Amino acid sequence: MGAHRETAYKNSSVNVGLPLSEDLQDNSILLPLYIPMSEEEIQYVVDSFLKIVSTKDKKQLFNNY
């Protein structure tokens, strides 16, 4: 997350450019993991992520969802 892009900091970071941070944010995946998630939900997220990154034919994979 690039804090300078968040709404709460919108007015305090006018004209701030952080190209490395922005590139990392734009090319990252945020996995939905949070405290009240059950072990089963966490395992589903992990299994789904591993399936996506290990599938060679990405078009075929997303046609299944």
> Biggest sheet: strands, sense, closure?
none
Number of strands: 0
**Amount of helix:** 40-55%
Number of helices: 3
Strand coverage percent: under 5%
Instruction: Return the structural class.
Output: mainly alpha
How many domains in all? 2
Outline type: flat
What's the helix-strand series? HHH
First CA to last CA: what distance? 27 Å
The poorly predicted ranges are none
Average per-residue pLDDT, rounded, comes to 82
Characterization of the model:
With 65 residues, the protein is mainly α. The protein folds into two domains: 29 residues, no CATH class; 35 residues. It has three helices and no strands. The longest helix has 16 residues.
How are the secondary structure elements laid out?
Elements: H1 19-26, H2 39-54, H3 58-63
Key traits:
65 residues, mainly alpha, 2 domains, 3 helices
Give a quick summary of the entry.
By secondary structure, this protein is mainly α. Helix content is 46%, strand content 0%.
